[in-house]
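thought: fold this chain, then report.
action: predict
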Amino acid sequence: MKAELRGTTSISLQNPTLFDTHHPPLSGALTGCLGSLDGACLEKLLLHCASALESNDVTLAQQVMWVLNNVASSVGDPNQRLTSWFLRALISRASRVYPTSMNFNGSSSTIQRRLMSVTELAGYVDLIPWHRFGFCASNSAILKAIEGFPRVHIIDFSITHCMQWPTLIDALAKRPEGPPSLKITVPSYRPPVPPLLNVSTEQVGLRLANFAKFKDVPFEFHVFDSSPKEHLNPSLLNLRDDEALVINCQHWLRFLSDEEKGRDTFLNIIKNLNPQIIVVVDEDSDLSGSSLTSRIATCFNYLWIPFDSLETFLPKDSRQRMEYESDIGHKIENIIGFEGFQRIERLESGVKLSQRCKNAGFLSIPFCEETVKEVKGLLDEHASGWGMKREEEDILVLTWKGHNSVFATAWFPNGLED
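observation:
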């Protein structure tokens, strides 16, 4: 029995030389998928389309997009919803390659960016443990690394607007020997990716300062001038010899251009600062390939995770769910729709990143059992499909139904240890 065809992401076909308004003849392989909506079939269709675009086969691309448009749905099951964003990205890519105007429902294919309030951001972070996992693992490792230090300086590279730090401040306030003096420094530049906030970085710092004052934790907050190509300038950091330096990287390194050896340069600069600890957390997938088809295959099987996890507790028409999926769609559009320097989403796996850190002269810091226990306690607050495992090189990994989603690692420069 054929599944219902729901074309909620219909294509506006305005150039008859590329996509005419008559349905093109379909091959048997493509029409076969009209009766199936499973992930394997949808992935196959997406790969057909990508292959056609890479080989400039406009006719085949037209055929596959028509089929995808009839089986994808932004309000369907997780696979349909995910596919609708891939189709959107492929249309966006095709519209730049070919002289045509294509969009969804007659409107621009550019994803609308929304600005969140601080309260909305807190709800965004709490929705699934995608970010909280890294916060919990990192904070626990940081607390252990700074034991006994009267001054702590955290240089924070994160896309979540310092949402990690209230929990750490609260833990420092309870330290038996009393809280240290805490300084947090953040770069003025932030990758232009969700989540986006409706208040400035300086205002975030004021909120943290007020919270630290309430907890009786001495606190400073600084923003140093930076640019996309100059993420870290040691002369701007105001480092002190008597402070424990912490480098925190949450979903950040992938935005440093690997083509210009930006990640290796960044790690070398950090190593020369002699931090007490560097924590690196990111999504555990390799999306840096040059081939469009390979990126689609990896991305589809990876980003299925948040779409599937949201299905477990939010209704199909939930506004919160749609907004969260829209932010994932922003990522998909960049991974699939762009090449060269315009493609800023260049993930590498936890194992690959760990090797990069080793090559840069860092030694790994194993996560202690107390950290593992804290992370497991956090995951108990979420759906039963979330889990955690250890992998080689002391990598802690968040999983969904056994599939790797986010990794956490901790490091120190070789030679710092007593």
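thought: worth noting. Residues 11-110+290-342 form one domain.
final: tokens above.
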